[in-house]
Amino acid sequence: MELCPGRKFDLFKGILLAASSVAVWGSQSAVGRFLYGEAPEEFDAFSIAFYRFLLGDVTVFLFLLLLPQERPKLFSSLKSSWKTFLLLGFVGIAMEGSLQTLSLKYTSSGRSALFGAGAPLFTVLFARLLLKEPFNSWNTTGILLGLAGVVLILGGGGMDVYSTHTMLAGDLLALGSGLSWGLYTVLAVEPTKKYGPLVCTCWAMLFAAPLLGIPAAFSGGLCRLPSPRTVLCVLYLGIAASGFAIPAWAGASKYLSAGALGAFGYLSLALAILFSILFLGESFTLRFLAAFLLILMSLLLVLKGSKGK
Q: Which of 11, 92, 129, 172 is the most buried (most CB within 10 A)?
C-alpha cells in the first residue's frame, strides 16, 4: 500500500535525522584512535567520555533554552521520569561511551566501528523482547548474517599504524558498546515520544556525567593538563558527536521503528572504515572484507524487514 504524502515526509525526516547522526559518528572512532595513538599519556577513556558528554549536555541544554515550547517540559519531565533518565544515562551514555572510547586503546578504528555496528542486531532483538515488534524472515536472516560477520572478524584483520598487540580485548569492548547502544535505542523510544529527543538526551547525559566522573577522578585523568590537540578532539566529540548527533538520533525514533533506526548504524560503519583507511593507514584482510560485506548485507535485510512506524 502506498504511503500518504504526510507519512512519506515523516519517513524522510526520520531517515535524514538518522543519517545525519551516523555521518558524524562515522568519524568519531578515527578521532579517538588518533588521539590515543598520538598522545597515549593523555588518553584516559573515562575522562574523555566525561568531558565529551558534559560538553554535549551543555550544548543541548543551551539549545533547549532557546526553544520556548521545550522549556516547560524540561524540568517537569525530570520530576516525573528521573529514574528513566538515569537508566538511559547509564546504559546509552556512560556504558556505551566509555566502552567505545576504551576499545580504541586496544583495537583499530575500523575494527571498533565494525564491532560497534552490532548495535542494530541487538536493537532488533531488544525491540522484539521489550516492544514486541514482530520478527520476520528478513529480520532473522539479517541478524544471522550480521552475527556471522561479527564472528568472522574475531579471526583477525584490520591493523593500523598504532597496532602493536592482540586486539581481542578492544574487540569485545566495542561489541559491548554496540549492545549498550542497541538497548538504549529501544529504551529511549517511549520517553522520546513523551518528552521529545532533546529533553531526553539532555537529562540522560546529565545523569551520565557523574557516573563517568567518578572513575575519571580515580584514574587521575581529570587532573592532567591536556594539549591543544586533545582539547580540539574532545570539543569535536562533545559538540558534534554528542550535542548534535545523539538528539538527532533520538528524534529519528519518532518517525522510524526501533529496528529500522538501529539498522542505520551500519551507515556509519562504511564512513568509519573509510576514514581509518585514509587517515590511519588501516589495512584489511580478505577475512575483514568478507565480514564487512556480510554486515552490509545484514543492513539491507534488516531495513527491508523493519518498516516505519
A: 92
What does the pLDDT average to over 11-31?
A: 84
Residue 241 to residue 263: CA distance in whole angstroms: 18
The pLDDT assigned to 203 comes to 93
Contact 21, 248 (CB under 8 A): yes
Q: Tell me what pLDDT residue 182 has.
A: 87
Domain count, the chain: 1
Question: pLDDT value at position 309?
Answer: 45
Find the angle CA(114)-CA(251)-CA(101) to the nearest 5 degrees.
Answer: 35
Structural domain containing residue 73: 24-305
H helix intervals, the chain: 5-38, 45-65, 71-88, 96-103, 109-116, 119-130, 137-153, 168-187, 189-195, 197-219, 228-236, 245-252, 258-263, 265-280, 286-305
Q: Is 18 part of any domain?
A: no
Domain contains 154: yes
Distances (CA, A) of 277 to 78, 215, 273: 43, 33, 6
pLDDT at 140: 79
> For residue 9, is it within any domain?
no
Q: What is the DSSP string of 181-233?
A: HHHHHHHTHHHHHHH-HHHHHHHHHHHHHHHHHHHHHHHTGGGS---HHHHHH
Q: Is the pLDDT of residue 108 over 60?
A: yes
Examine residue 2 and state whether it is found in any structural domain, yes or no. Answer: no
